[in-house]
Amino acid sequence: MAHQFSLAHLSVLTTSPVEMVEIAAKTGYDFVSFRLTAVTATEHVFALQNDRAMMNEVKARLAATGVKVLDIELCRMPAEIEPETYVSVLEAAAELGARHILAQLPDANRERATDRFGRLCDLAAPYKLTVDLEYPSWTETPNLAAAAAVVRAVNRPNAGVLIDTLHFDRARDSVEELRKLPPEWFHFAQVCDAPAEIPTTVEGLIHTARSERNFLGEGGIDVRGILDAMPEMPYSLEIPTDTLALTVSAEERARRSIRAAEAYLNGLHGEYLHRSAA
Asked: What is the rounded distance in angstroms from the CA atom of residue 30 to the CA atom of residue 67?
């Protein structure tokens, strides 16, 4: 089966959006997934919503290569941030032709978090964007049940749940529970592998998530089982490999990521490993 893949920004975080489009085109991706807001205080971000020259250059490269934008991240709403903060991000997403917005709710006040998610969905609707809720296991929205409760409560047609195979595994979520959820909630997935042993500290969980994920088939997550529980959709390959990045270019890491994904999902992983070692 021919799957559609997106190059996630976290996989090549210091690479500019212009370079990302070129890399995606060269290595066979259908989409790119841009990060336009910083998650950490020290993280470099390419804020296209504030850089007209770069925005125009990215749009030109998208048009020239045929690569499209799958999703934009990240609308993260802790206690101090209202959804209206992200209007410029929604506008940029629409200008780029993106389909989805990635959101997180690290807020212990569930009523407030749910209200804000619904308002973000309403803000995104005129731009024909879905808003997909991601649930890192160390946040206040820590598992599939918590994310599903929010999406069910807001009851917006453009609301969805974002399954990241790493977070799904670290939350010890159930494939059986995943199968019970409405298929229309799922628009794309973030996909990676990782060691089977789950870190016991928040620091360990974050380190794996941000810096040392595995290519598909090289860890211990049942990636195929998770994906088989959802409809067919594009897969954003979010696979940061900071150690590998010390010696391997962003383009080559992106290439290895998509080749491994293709091999794994088509049952050819053993052959891929043999060719890679040769």
From this structure: 6
Q: What is the mean pLDDT of residues 212-236?
A: 97
pTM for the structure as a whole: 0.93
Beta-carbon neighbour count of residue 77 at 10 Å? 22
Average pLDDT, the chain: 95
Residue pair 188/233 in contact (Cβ under 8 Å)? The answer is yes
Contact predicate 90/123, CB 8 Å: yes
Please report which confidence band the pLDDT of residue 52 belongs to, taking 50, 70 and 90 as the band edges: very high
Sheet of strand 189-191: strand arrangement: 159-161, 130-133, 100-104, 68-76, 31-35, 5-8, 235-237, 189-191, 163-164
- Domain parsing of the chain, residue ranges: 5-277
Q: Which CATH number among 1.10.10.10, 2.30.110.10, 3.20.20.150, 3.40.50.300 corresponds to the domain 5-277? A: 3.20.20.150
SS3 191: strand
Report yes or no: 69 and 55 within 8 Å, Cβ to Cβ.
Answer: no
pLDDT the model gives residue 1: 61
